[in-house]
Specification:
Order of helices and strands: EEHEHEEHHHHHH
Helix content: 55-70%
Radius of gyration: 39 Å
Strand content: 5-15%
Largest sheet: 3 strands, mixed
Structural class: mainly alpha
Shape: rod-shaped
Number of helices: 8
Length: 291
């Protein structure tokens, strides 16, 4: 489709303020609305409807070219509506009905486009999770990576609910049974619900894997913290085992008035022996506790 000599994507990108409108700004998702305003033509031939809906003039078996017909939009004998996943043909519908159908198509096509983006982000997160073996060997880098993945998955789940599943309801925007019936049928024709369910399962399973990895990292951190506390406890006990007997012997020497010249006097040897015995006993208790 060209508008004023420019492609549709570039024209829409320029009007939307895209920084580089020459790039491809339109995704593969689309749905065409064909409007025939004349209410006196009578019903269109079934073969012509199938050709327009499936964009081909080759004969197709009916089971491979389903035509969806919203009940409320086909009650009036002067108006009819038929749709496929690609095209909607409306004949003789009122302008306000056609405008509402346009809003419905925008919501559904936008939901399919957002669903494709969420699926791509989910696959990217899965790829990052599977390729993170080296980083996960270090607790700090692994926890940072897994926490980032968990936050990203939470955002994707929110986008899945708000950007995709919320598009299934149009009644709050356009309270009309005719439009609600058309919207439900279009939503079902594009198979948005089952695709959203598949992406939701991908997110759930990846989230379970991320939570399991976080639990594993937490267990490693707990063991490392226990080992660190054990080392500090052992060092503290060794310091106490050496300092307390030395302090007791030094206090005894000070109280007895010993000087530097007579520290080797035999009368102090029992005190030295008692201090050494206390050190040996403390070290023995420490070894037993560690074993």
């Amino acid at each position: 489709i060209d508008i004023g000599g420019g492609e549709l994507g570039r024209v829409l990108g320029g009007r939307a303020g895209v920084s580089r409108p020459e790039d491809q700004v339109l995704g593969p998702e689309h749905h065409q609305l064909v409007s025939i305003p004349d209410r006196g033509l009578g019903p269109l031939p079934e073969g012509l409807i199938r050709q327009l809906l499936y964009r081909t003039d080759r004969p197709q078996r009916p089971e491979f070219a389903n035509v969806h017909r919203p009940v409320e939009l086909n009650r009036d004998p002067r108006a009819s509506t038929a749709l496929s996943p690609y095209v909607t043909i409306s004949q003789g519908q009122l302008p306000e009905v056609e405008n509402a159908m346009l809003v419905s198509a925008v919501l559904v096509v936008g939901a399919t486009a957002r669903l494709r983006e969420i699926r791509g982000c989910t696959q990217g997160s899965l790829r990052a999770f599977r390729e993170a073996d080296d980083e996960l060997r270090t607790t700090r880098a692994g926890r940072q990576l897994i926490e980032d993945l968990a936050a990203r998955l939470g955002d994707l789940e929110g986008e899945l609910g708000y950007g995709v599943e919320a598009a299934a309801d149009i009644g709050s925007l356009i309270p009309s049974r005719r439009i609600e019936g058309y919207h439900r049928m279009l939503y079902r024709a594009l198979d948005v619900a089952s695709r959203a369910l598949a992406v939701g399962r991908m997110l759930d399973r990846l989230e379970h894997a991320v939570n399991a990895e976080l639990t594993s990292i937490g267990s490693v951190e707990a063991r490392q913290e226990d080992a660190r506390r054990s080392r500090w406890s052992a060092m503290s006990w060794l310091l106490l085992a050496g300092l307390v007997p030395v302090a007791l012997v030094a206090a005894y020497l000070v109280l007895d008035g010993a000087s530097q010249e007579n520290l080797q006097d035999r009368k102090y040897w029992p005190a030295y022996a008692i201090g050494g015995a206390l050190i040996v006993i403390s070290l023995a208790f420490e070894v037993i506790a560690l074993v």
